[in-house]
Specification:
The protein is mainly alpha-helical. It has a domain of 99 residues. The chain is built from four helices and two strands. The protein has a two-stranded antiparallel ribbon. Helix 1 crosses helix 4 and helix 2 crosses helix 3.
């Protein structure tokens, strides 16, 4: 007779909690874009994405603590407003660096995809310019009598 429990690495859990492990799908579009973007641009995009998430989290934490009244660090005294803003800023920066809520990964993905498209467009434009320049030189050489 089945007891309704299974043994996992975490211990015994109800069988209803057990789910099949599904490996996340690889983001092939991002992997392809990363090959086209320089490591310096990737680092800058990562930093920008993390800063963006920190800014969002700071706004969220500020709103969460704005209504707090009473004594202590989140009280309603004249100096706590400045202190609270600095504290929420540090909370948000540390929270974002530790992984945040997932906003930075999506912002990073979007920035890299845009950068790859921009770089590809510039490369295509340069190639078109080279072809036009070559054709112009070739046709002018053909017209020039020797």
């Amino acid at each position: 007779m089945q007891s309704g429990f299974i043994t996992t690495a975490e211990g015994r859990v109800p069988a209803s909690f057990a789910t099949a492990s599904i490996a996340p799908r690889a983001d092939l579009e991002l992997q392809d874009a990363l090959k086209k973007v320089s490591p310096a641009a990737q680092a800058k995009a990562k930093s920008t994405a993390t800063d963006f998430e920190a800014m969002f989290l700071n706004s969220m934490f500020s709103e969460m603590t704005s209504g707090l009244k009473g004594e202590g660090p989140f009280g309603d005294t004249p100096g706590t407003g400045v202190w609270r803003s600095m504290l929420t800023e540090q909370y948000s920066k540390n929270f974002a660096k530790a992984g945040g809520v997932g906003i930075s990964s999506e912002v990073f993905r979007t920035l890299i995809l845009q950068q790859a498209k921009t770089d590809q467009a510039k490369a295509d434009q340069a190639k078109t310019y080279q072809i036009k320049t070559y054709r112009t030189k070739t046709s002018s050489e053909m017209r020039t009598p020797t």
